[in-house]
Amino acid sequence: MTTIESITTGAQVGGLLPLLTAVVQRPSWSAEMKKAVAVVVALVAGVVTVATAGGWDQFQHGNLTTATILTVLAVSQASYDLVWKPSTLAPVIEAVTTRKRPHQAE
Question: What does pTM read for this prediction?
Fold first, then answer.
């Protein structure tokens, strides 16, 4: 896999990742907790992206692996701040996927 293919794949994954992350996150969590979860999920998604796009042998190429993982992280953070948060789609997904406890039911 070439560098441009790897970065392109990482950007695609990172662009959609905030929507998947929103399924796990909860509206009641602090901003720091949400950021930590988003970073960890992005790093894991970056590793999975490298493995699926280039196979496990791809990890022998340190610069390419690092570039892909960092691309997923950077694009996921940027797309959340610039697209998904202002559109309110990510916060809506957080709210919808949060189970309400019996005493929280409306």
Answer: 0.82
Each residue's pLDDT tens digit, 82-103:
999 899 998 889 889 887 765 5
Euclidean distance between CA atoms 5 and 15, whole angstroms = 15
Burial of 67 (0-12, 13-18, 19+ CB in 10 A): middle
**Tokens describing residue 17:** 């990742």
What is the per-residue pLDDT across 71-82, written as a single tens digit (0 to 9) for each?
A: 999 999 999 999
- CA-closest candidate to residue 11, choices 71, 80, 79: 71
3-state secondary structure of 55: coil
Cα separation, 15 vs 67, whole angstroms: 16
Taking the C-alpha atoms of residue 59 and residue 72, their distance in angstroms, rounded to an integer, is 16
Q: How many CB atoms lie within 10 A of CB 28?
A: 8
Instruction: Check residue 83 and report its DSSP letter.
Output: I
State the residue for tokens 């997904």: 93
The runs of H, that is alpha helices, within 55-88 are 62-79
